[in-house]
Design brief:
Blueprint lengths: L9 H36 L6 H33 L1 H19 L5 H4 L2 H31 L5 H6 L4 H19 L2 H8 L1 H5 L1 H12 L6 H8 L9 H8 L1 H33 L3 H29 L1 H25 L2 H27 L7 H15 L4 H12 L3 H20 L8 H4 L4
């Protein structure tokens, strides 16, 4: 199978990368907006009968359900993405996510309709999770399959910016709303505005993505006829690349746990335990997300030069140790120390996350790549990202100390280090060469 770089112009590749970054940013804005809001207001508006930490745990329970739906979305989108193409599924995921996020902005609160409020919130969170379950793999596959082997890490790494950029956008909009409105007005209606803005962002994302063509490497398979496409691509991925799925999930564990401890749990820890103003937590998150937007492409490009394994492994090892300093700095209550803790944590996370797009896509052959990468990426979120804030809160409530949470983070990152050690280096290989690997 020829390298796609031979038939793809630089202008086309830039267009694909730009569309992937914009669409991914919008979808993760929607997804992270829920997590930040869960830490700030949902515990009070939808679960008002509980104390602060218990209310936060209940809010994070609905937050976790979004992660539980992500593997299902990954399986469904992966199946059809490997059967009918990447582009159509990307467009569908964008619309589903935007509609669910917009609807959350219209929800009545517990005070208005009672138990119906958290039930509706939970259902919409499930739709969000289902939609984002198909987004990541489709976006990175578009960039990776258009790019060439020598620079695949850099090209596939660009959509990864969508995660910190979406988080930056969500935290930024909420920070503006909390700065402009007193607490009473923010809880009454101000929190809804960021969710309603989603409709405009989705329209922009649709406009950018609609003109994209299917990837040349997938079109080549489709031209061969239906016999080249597996009827059950996920089952085929388990059959031909079980090691790839295991390695991909292992790589994700530390990265996923670390991200949601740093970006979601830390807000509750700072506002409810350290008792700093929520603006301090949001500004630290803004600074960290902005710096990670730079760290992600640098790490992705570096993985093209020295390999995926050393870059991801260094990030995981660094975060395993940084967790102890991270909570010590947060506990000081000093805004500068808090900001530094978040920035360093997210830079190390960027070292893991930037190269992982290319790393995971290189684990699977083209005909099952959407299904394999979606499953490895999204299934891990059930026991890693979704549970991270809940486990951290439970440890905090039980021990009134952040040390057990730092140990939890250490163990998660150690799993990623082990997966990296066991993985094969895939840097610089064409997809044709990778398909010959056992």
């Amino acid at each position: 199978m020829p390298d796609t770089a031979a038939v793809v112009t630089p202008a086309t590749l830039r267009k694909v990368v730009f569309a992937s970054v914009i669409g991914t940013t919008i979808e993760w804005y929607d997804f992270f907006l829920y997590g930040t809001s869960a830490a700030l207001v949902f515990n009070k508006l939808f679960f008002p009968a509980s104390d602060a930490l218990t209310g936060a745990m209940l809010a994070f329970g609905t937050y976790a359900l979004g992660f539980a739906a992500r593997p299902l979305g990954g399986i469904v989108f992966g199946h059809f993405g490997d059967r009918i193409g990447r582009k159509r599924l990307l467009m569908l995921s964008l619309v589903l996510m935007g509609a669910a996020t917009f609807a959350i902005g219209l929800l009545p609160t517990f005070e208005q309709v009672g138990l119906a409020a958290p039930i509706l919130l939970t259902l919409l969170r499930l739709v969000q999770g289902f939609a984002v379950g198909g987004e990541w793999s489709g976006a990175v596959l578009m960039a990776a399959e258009y790019g060439d082997a020598a620079r695949r890490g850099a090209w596939a790494g660009w959509p990864q910016i969508g995660v910190p950029a979406g988080n930056l956008l969500a935290a930024g909009v909420l920070a503006v709303m909390t700065a402009l409105l007193p607490d009473e007005q923010f809880r009454a209606w101000g929190w809804r505005v960021p969710f309603l803005i989603s409709a405009v962002l989705v329209a922009v994302g649709w406009w950018v993505r609609v003109s994209l063509d299917e990837t040349p490497i997938f079109e080549e398979i489709r031209r061969r006829g239906a016999h080249s496409l597996d009827r059950a691509p996920l089952l085929e991925a388990f059959r031909v690349r079980p090691r790839g799925i295991a390695i991909g999930m292992g790589v994700r564990v530390g990265e996923n746990v670390a991200y949601y401890v740093i970006t979601t749990f830390s807000i509750v820890y700072l506002t409810e335990f350290v008792h700093v103003d929520r603006s301090v937590a949001l500004h630290a998150l803004l600074a960290g997300a902005a710096v990670e937007c730079l760290a992600v492409p640098i790490a992705a490009r570096l993985s093209d030069r020295i390999g995926r394994r050393p870059v991801v492994g260094a990030g995981a090892a660094g975060l395993a140790l940084w967790g102890f300093a991270f909570f010590a700095l947060l506990g000081s209550g000093a805004p500068t120390a808090i900001t530094a803790a978040v920035i360093v944590g997210l830079v190390l996370h960027g070292a893991m996350y930037g190269p992982s797009a290319a790393f995971l896509t290189e684990l699977f052959p083209t005909r099952v790549r959407y299904s394999g990468t979606s499953f490895a990426y999204q299934a891990t979120s059930i026991f890693a990202g979704s549970l991270a804030p809940i486990i951290a809160l439970a440890l905090l409530k039980r021990t009134q100390s952040a040390t057990p949470i730092a140990i939890y983070l250490f163990v998660a990152c150690a799993i990623t280090v082990i997966a990296v050690v066991l993985a094969r280096e895939t840097r610089g290989k064409t997809f044709a060469e990778l398909e010959l690997d056992d």
